[in-house]
Amino acid sequence: MTNKRIWDQFKHTDPKFTKPFTKFGRTLTTTDPMYQVMRMTDYFGPVGEGWTYEVKYTYTEQNVFAELKIGWKQDTNKDFNWYGPVSAVNPLYNSKGSLDDEAPKKAMTDAMTKAMSHLGMSADVFLGLFDSNKYVSEMKEKFSAKSNVDQSKVREVTNAN
Hints:
The chain has 161 residues and is α+β, with helices and mostly antiparallel strands. It contains five helices and five strands. It has a single domain, classed as Enolase-like, domain 1 (2-Layer Sandwich), CATH 3.30.390.
């Protein structure tokens, strides 16, 4: 068992689940949060069973803060291992001054993504490796090859039935 056993499972990101965004005049890469949830589920099992999270919200007049802890099990008979809390903040009102009813979810999702990153989730994105076209091409090839293997397994099971 190595210290990076979880990190190594999560460190590479399938480029199909990323997209560029601009912040402070610079183009960065973001990862789809549902992809991250899927990866946690693939590795640990269903949410609530193999992994879980707890979130606490704090509201001010202008913002909502989400404070999130993430838990996971290495053995189904054991207690959860916990990390956090990790915090995120989101404005309660949009640029037009209307209440953003998605603000708590946005803050929670941001906090969850940050917490998962400490386990190694999409480490390549956070480390800036997606800034390199060569690296992105390598990841496209890696995940394409993996997808082809997964599809052949599906065909084998389908043909066996």
